[in-house]
Amino acid sequence: MSDFQTPYRGYNVLDKWDSPSWNEQTREVVGKRLHDIPKRCFLTREQWSLLEAICERLIPQPDREEPVPIVPWIDDMLHRNHSPGYRYADMPPMRDAWRQGLDAIAAEAHNRHGKTFEELTEQEQDALLTDVQENRVERRYWGELPAGGFFLHHLLKSVVAIYYSHPVAWSEIGFGGPASPRGYVRLGFDERDPWEAKEVEPADA
Amino acid sequence: MLAPHQPEPSRRPLIAVGAATLATAAGLGWLLQRAWRAEDDTSQRAAQALGTGAAILCFSVALDSAIEHYRGSFKDRLMFAGPTMAALGLATTMWIAMRPRDADKPAVRVALGAVGLTGLAGLGFHAYNILKRPGELSALNIFYAAPFGAPAALTLAGIYGLIAGEMLSDREYVRTRLPRHAAGLIAFSLLGTVAEAGILHFRGAFQDPFMYAPVVVPPIAAVAIGAAALSPRAARAAEPLLKATALLGIAGPMFHAYGIHRNMGGWRNWSQMILQGPPLPAPPAFLGISIAGLGLLPLLEEQPE
């Protein structure tokens, strides 16, 4: 799992900090993402710790000394009720969906193993999350909330979106961050601008 | 009150910047005219002007194609041909401009012929580049693929230089048909360049009112010099119009520099905007064609009715 290696070795998007690629507004936004990590405001301690454990399974970061923070930003989104502007027809509003969904996963863990989700082995955690994803759950814990829908549309999408909003993740995939002010000129397939990340061939490494 | 969907009107000082740019260009043009040491003989004077005009065209093509082909990452080795041959054309035609008497030397003619043929080949390659893309001859490809007409400037520069050489010969048609045909070619050159500027300024949505200038003034100048090919009396009217077109050729890069300033990131973002903003070296093509045309006017005026 951790034998993944980025093909953009040696590339750090933050090297753009003082370059023509970024301006004051961009530096401000990226700086916030790096340094202003929100405190817990919305989730309970138990929900927070559960969500930490879930994130470690959805997007494990064993190779990072400082993993990209994800839970604080989900908590911040819920605290500010910053929804995407729509509600899934078969799900309650965003905040309720998260509360219900997290509590239901905690209850599933207790029901199956008599432990908290965090205390389970990685295999048990993965098995439980897979069941949630595929709707093999106890209806009494979930009520009207579709487990698979919550997993895909709220949990997974938020985790991935927040992970890839962090400069460390941008460097990993060779992304240049906000194209502000400098964008891209060479837009065709297999074309790159000199200020874009360059893949290092495995042979060169 | 503005309707809610209307954009805020621009607060940029477009008119003031435009007026200042045109005034500066007029000053530069005046200095250029003062520095001009015209040959006494009208044929040599025409050769000198054709050489100078061709040199400016080559200068424009050399820089523009170097920048644009760099943007295209020189994906095809042949893309080096444009800027390289334009540089050869620039050296040759500068030689003619400085020593019009050498315009008919065989080496000069061979070089000019090669430059002209490169332009023709370039037209073919650019047409292929447009047609090979999905959508083929669509507005999108005409706007964003290789510019169809651009290599023609190289061909025109080659022909101007060859005409300059012919002007030195003792053959009779130098005083009769040649100036008329050359004037027709100048009119054609202007219209071709207008088409190029028109397509690209349309692509740029004419978002600065001065973007209309190069599609308004040069066509009138083209009509005037075309008329002068038919009747010598029109030559008088062609002079101020060609000078106005030359003025736009000088003002163009300044307007384009302002356009880069107005783009996202402005000049600090030059590494993107030199490629993506308005092309700095393109407008002097109007200056080159106008100078060549102005040099023909004395010969046209000598023509019998």
**How many structurally independent domains of chain B?**
1
* Mean of all residue-level pLDDT scores of chain A: 94
* Class by SSE composition of chain B: mainly alpha
Give the count of structural domains of chain A.
1
Q: What can be said about the biggest beta sheet of chain A?
A: none
Estimate percent helicity of chain A: 40-55%
Provide a descriptive summary of the structure in words:
The complex is a heterodimer of chains A (205) and B (305). With 205 residues, chain A is mostly helical. Chain A has helices at 24-35, 45-58, 71-79, 94-113, 122-133, 139-142, 147-163, 167-173. Chain B has helices spanning 14-35, 42-71, 81-98, 106-131, 139-144, 152-167, 177-203, 213-230, 234-262, 270-276, 284-301. The longest helix of chain B has 30 residues, at 42-71. Chain B has 11 helices and no strands. Chain A binds chain B through residues 20, 23, 180-186, 191, 193-195, and chain B through 71-73, 264-266, 268-272, 275-276.
Topology:
The complex is a heterodimer of chains A (205) and B (305).
Chain A: H1 24-35, H2 45-58, H3 71-79, H4 94-113, H5 122-133, H6 139-142, H7 147-163, H8 167-173
Helix pairs in contact in A: 4-7, 5-7
Chain B: H1 14-35, H2 42-71, H3 81-98, H4 106-131, H5 139-144, H6 152-167, H7 177-203, H8 213-230, H9 234-262, H10 270-276, H11 284-301
